[in-house]
Design brief:
This protein folds into 2 domains: 3-81, Glutaredoxin, CATH 3.40.30; 88-194, Glutathione S-transferase Yfyf (Class Pi), Chain A, domain 2 (Up-down Bundle), CATH 1.20.1050.10. A 4-stranded mixed sheet has the order 2-1-3-4. 50% of the residues lie in helices and 6% in strands. Helix 4 runs antiparallel to helix 6 (124-142). The chain is globular and about 50 Å long. By secondary structure, the protein is an alpha+beta fold. This is Maleylacetoacetate isomerase.
């Protein structure tokens, strides 16, 4: 089966999906969509994804446009290696972490929103920091310090969300030293070859 991943190298949402695809060893073709030149607003891409966002995973028969929905599809289609804990309570914690990032942090520090905040006279950097700090505080409390990664000794979907969000936190000037468990998890994650290959700087469209 041939997959096409429409991605932008610096998109944290697309980065999550690259991690999941790599961990599950699912081959795909990388199709760069340049968000800076507004390629996602092109007529061709708007037909593929009316939300005008990345990532978009295109299968031979249909497309999926949201990272967590893509996670669900990949786990259902490719059971091994699993990225979901066996224990239902731990799985719930994993999805909780994913949702804090996916709905409680990332959309609130999205570049398009920050531009609107600035236009309205607000401080976009302060707004981004405030929301990242709030979310990271909750996540820090949820992480299991006895595990190698966020909730397990193997990479889960929570890890696919945490690492890109840590990068965003640094970009917006958040003092990440206040979150030692998040830092420890991410230090372990960046040693994994599949995750190294998913890093922004290793993508075909990365600006050198």
């Amino acid at each position: 089966m041939t997959y096409i991943l429409y991605s932008y190298w610096q998109s944290s949402s697309a980065w999550r999906v690259r991690i999941a695809l790599n961990i599950k060893k699912v081959p795909y073709t990388y199709k760069a969509i340049d968000l800076i030149t507004k390629e996602h607003f092109s007529q061709l891409y708007s037909i593929k994804n009316p939300m005008l966002q990345v990532p978009l995973l295109e299968t031979p028969t249909f497309s999926i446009s949201q990272s967590l929905a893509i996670f669900k599809y990949l786990e259902g289609k490719y059971k091994f290696p699993t990225m979901i804990p066996n224990d239902i309570q731990t799985e719930a914690k994993m999805w909780e972490i994913c949702e804090i990032i996916n709905s409680g942090i990332q959309p609130l520090q999205n570049l398009s929103l920050l531009k609107k905040i600035k236009k309205l006279g607000g401080d976009p950097m302060e707004w981004a920091q405030e929301n990242i700090i709030k979310g990271f505080g909750f996540i820090e409390d949820l992480l299991d310090h006895k595990k190698v990664y966020s909730v397990e000794d193997f990479v889960t979907f929570a890890d696919a969300c945490i690492l890109p969000q840590l990068n965003n936190a640094k970009k917006y000037g958040v003092n990440v030293e206040k979150y030692p468990k998040i830092l420890r998890v991410c230090e372990n994650l960046i040693k994994v070859q599949e995750i190294i290959e998913a890093m922004p700087e290793n993508q075909p469209d990365a600006k050198k």
